[in-house]
Amino acid sequence: MSVSDLIKQEIASLPMLSEVARKLLMLTADEDHSLAEVADIIEKDVYLSTNVLKLANSAGFARGHQIETVNRAVMHIGESNVMSLVIGMSTGELLHDPLAGYAQQQGSLWAFCLQEAIAAREVAKRCKIPLQPDLAYTAGMLFNIGMVVMSDHLAKESEQILKAMNDPDHGSFIEAERKITGTDRDEVGTRIAERWRLPKSIQTAIRFGHSPSEAPEELAPLVYSVHIGDILARTIGYGGGVDALSYSLDDQYHRYFDLDNTALELILLDILEEFTKIESYFLTD
Amino acid sequence: MKTIYVGIGELAVSRNPEECIKTMALGSCVGVMTHDRTSGCWGLLHIALPESKINMTRAKAKPGTFADTGIPSLLREMRRAGWDGKTRLVVRLAGGATIMDPNSTFNIGKRNLLAVKKILWAYKLGAIAEHVGGEISRTVTVRIGEGKVTLSSPSIGEWEL
């Protein structure tokens, strides 16, 4: 069986997202939604409600008084953190498993997804035109989902990967993935996103996040925020597997963002501080 | 063997031969490793950014985040741990990687390295060894008992600096 057929089969056998997760993803991709509508959906799911309340009262968020309603909890932790819970719970072990093909240990991808999400949101806040930072967060979190399927196929070709990465004239890791397996995580991730029926905006961010200049114009700001978020999270050292920083920056981002050195450094500090706030909850509970 | 893990913006100093000091996955960040041969004291600092002026609150809470506040903090801790402040310290550097960016728009790794070297020069210090730049991730381990610093990277393996 060809790699392409194997990958198709693996994607078809991935668990589906829960209905509540899909409802929340569709709602939050719509720019006219409210946090009250988010809370309404969460309240109908006991397990999710419990976890939203638990996060709102955890060390990183507690403000001296107990939060007892889902509505207040959602307002308190914000949409981004709700979506981290939803995606974390809905994808189960998928984002936590070690990725041998990328030399990443258990939990590394999940940590990177959170860091990349924070980075994409902070970049989106600096967009010259209106853009939903929380949508950038969710798109950032799911951006590298294709890695979970690509990993085993890359692991089988680890010698070729090492050879490619040690070539002084090597291209990006995405190019290496394509050259060695005939596909890449963007293509695979897009197929997963289609199977999960993710909102079109998130599917587009997954498809074009490593090649943002190819994205349709109306979604380019979102795609570039995910692209820059990924680059910044990697720059600071997160996701440091065999691929490390072997990713190309598309500097056409300046069409949508004014990012001088100071702005970039401030975003890096935001990533550090925001991740510190949530890591003990999301990485140990 | 006990391992002291140093996170981003943190530092650690020890002279206990039963200990290792380790920092994981340096990207554009720079690891500054110091050794005083006289007291046997070792230090490791993981800096993320060049200058503290962009966030003085963070610099006070976590001085190791920035080169200009991290290096003085590291030297202060070295003195507390036994360095007399006069013997020349052995300094090694690692990290300062960059993404694939032909126009050097996101050159934080290079600016981190430059800032670190500038501050070290102000203290009349320079690195005897460095493994910097490129697009790789580096994990640093200071092996106090063995008296050596090793680096590792998933695409290269492990080697002594």
Give a quick summary of the entry.
The complex is a heterodimer of chains A (285) and B (161). With 285 residues, chain A is mostly helical.
Structural description of this entry:
- The complex is a heterodimer of chains A (285) and B (161).
- Chain A has helices at residues 3-12, 19-29, 35-43, 46-56, 70-91, 108-124, 133-142, 147-155, 158-166, 173-181, 185-195, 200-208, 220-235, 261-284.
- Chain A is mainly α.
- Chain A has one domain: Hypothetical protein af1432 (Orthogonal Bundle), CATH 1.10.3210.
- In chain A, helix 2 (19-29) packs across helix 5 (70-91), helix 4 crosses helix 5 (70-91) and helix 11 (185-195) packs antiparallel against helix 12.
- The model of chain A has no long low-confidence stretch (mean pLDDT 91).
- Chain B has 161 residues and is α+β, with helices and mostly antiparallel strands.
- Chain B has a single domain, classed as 60s Ribosomal Protein L30, Chain: A.
- Chain B is 22% helix and 36% strand.
- Chain B is built from three helices and ten strands.
- Chain B has helices at 56-61, 67-80, 108-122; strands spanning 2-5, 11-14, 19-26, 30-36, 41-47, 90-95, 127-132, 138-143, 148-153, 157-160.
- In chain B, a hairpin with a 4-residue loop joins strand 4 and strand 5 (41-47).
- In chain B, 52% of the residues are buried.
- The mean pLDDT of chain B is 95.
